[in-house]
C-alpha cells in the first residue's frame, strides 16, 4: 500500500501525530527486493574478479602481472563506489546496506583465500630466499611502512594477543599429548621435535617480535591513537560545535562580513604548512550557504561559496609564492621546510620550470602539497599568472568539498513538522564527500606519478641542479640527531624508567582508543550543526563531553604527556651524542642503525 506520509499520487510528504518521520523506517524493509535488484551486478563483479585472477594464472610469468592485480583493486573500488551511490539513491539505506557490506566482505575474503593459494609458494620462497618477483616487489614497497603498520597492530589488537597465546598453549598441549601418540606420522618433523610451550609457528612469531624496533613501534601506536582521537573528536565533535556556534554568530551578519571572516580564517589556515585546503572549503560550504541562502537562494549561495573558495585558494597561493617564497626564500629554515635539496622537490623544480602550461606542471600545482609547492614557485622566481592558471583545475576538488559542507548544513535543517527539510541531503553529502576524496586521491597520484616519471627521464637535469650548501649542512646536522635518536632508543639501551614511561603511554592510549571506539555514544552528547550551545549544551560547549568521554580524554592527555616525556629525554640524549660525533662517526652510526634487526644493533654495542 501507500506509505502513510504520502498522498495517493506520491507527490507530497506530510507527517502527523499518527504518522511521524519515524515511519520513513518502512524503507528498511526493502532489503529483500534490493538483493534481487542488485544480484546481477554482484554476480558480474564476482566474475570480473575471478577473471582477473584467471588472467594471472594464464601466465604467471607475464611481465604485466602486477598490472592485472592492480586492476583488480581499482575495479573493485570503482565498482563498489558506483554501486554504493546507486544503492543510496535508490533508498537502500544510509550508505552501504548490510547486504552490500556482507557481499563485499565475503568477496574480498574469498579473493584473499584464492590469492593465498595462488601465491603460497611464492610467499614461502620469498621468506626463505628474499627473492624478487611479484611478492618481492610488493614486499619491497611496503617494507618502509612495516613499523607504522605494526604500531597500528599494537594499538588495535593487543588485547587479542593473550587469548592467542593461550590458544597456542592449548594447541601445543594437545599436539604433545594426543597427536604425537596417535597420529605421529601426520606431524611434520620440525613440529614433532619442537619442545616449547607454544606451537612452532607462534614461537617463531615471538622470536620475530623480539627483533622489532620496539621504541619506534610503540611510538607509532600512540600516534595512531592520537590520529584517531583527532579525527573522531577534534575533527568531528568539536568542529561541529564550533561550526554551529559560527553559524549562530554570523546569522545576523550580512553576507559581505561573513565572507571577510571566512577569508581571514582561511588565510590563517593556508599559511600553516601542515594544513590542506579541504577543511577551509568545507567550512565555506557550511557558513556561506547558511548566511547566503536568504540573498542568493540555495543554489546561488552554493555557487557563491565555490567561487569564494576558489578565489581564496588563488589568493593564498599568491601570498605564499610572493610573500613567503619570494621574500623569505633565502631563509635556511624556509628552504628546509620546503625540502629544497630532496629528490622529490628537485624533480618538482624541474617540472615547475617548464615554459607555459604542461600536464606535469599542472599535476604538481594541483596535487602537490599546497604550502611547499607555492613557496617553491616563489624561491624559483616564477611568474605568478601562469602558476595561477595552472592551479585552476583545483576547482574539481573545491566544488564537491563545498557541496559536502552544504549538504551537511541542509541535512541538519528541519521543517515545521520536525521532519528533515531535505531528506536526500545526507545521501548526496556522502556522494559529494566520496567524489572529493576521489579527486583528491587522483590529483595526489597524478603528482606522485609526474614526480616519478621526471626522476626516471630527467635524472641528468636534476643532478645538474646545484645543492644548496647551507641547507645541506643544516640537513646533515638534522640527520645526525635523527640517527643518534635511533641509536639511543635501542630497546636494550633504554633505562627501565623510560621503558615504563613509553609502555604506560601506549596502555593509556589503548584505553582511550577502546573507550571512544566501543562506547562513543556514551562519551559524547548527540549534537548537530543547527543545535544551539545555549539550549542543547546548557550554555557550556564542554558539556558535549560526557563523564566517560572525560575519562577517555584524560587518558589521552596522560598518554601524550608520557610520550612527550620519553621523546624529550631521547631527543636530549641524541643531541648530546650528535654534538660529540664527527663526519666519520655519523657515517658509521648510519650504517649500524640500518642493520636488519634490533638484535643485530645490540650486538654492535
Would you write up a description of this structure?
With 605 residues, this protein is mainly α. 74% of the residues lie in helices and 0% in strands. The chain has helices spanning 31-58, 65-89, 98-129, 133-142, 146-157, 161-182, 189-193, 200-210, 214-250, 255-270, 278-328, 332-338, 343-352, 359-367, 370-379, 384-391, 395-411, 425-457, 459-464, 469-488, 496-518, 533-536, 547-579, 583-593, 598-603. The longest helix is centred in the middle third of the chain and has 51 residues, at 278-328.
Report the mean per-residue pLDDT as an integer. 76
Query: What is the global morphology?
Result: globular
Q: Which range best describes the helical content: under 10%, 10-25%, 25-40%, 40-55%, 55-70% or over 70%?
A: over 70%
Helical/strand content category:
mainly alpha
Question: Which blocks of ≥5 consecutive residues have pLDDT under 50?
Answer: 85-101, 131-138, 590-605
Order of helices and strands: HHHHHHHHHHHHHHHHHHHHHHHHH
Largest sheet: none
The count of strands amounts to: 0
What portion of residues belong to β-strands?
Answer: under 5%
CA-CA gap between termini: 80 Å
Q: For the CA atoms, what is the radius of gyration?
A: 29 Å
Given the structure, what is the number of helices?
Answer: 25
How would you sum up this structure in a few lines?
The chain is an all-alpha fold and 605 residues long. Helices cover 74% and strands 0% of the residues. It starts with 30 loop residues before the first helix and ends with a helix.
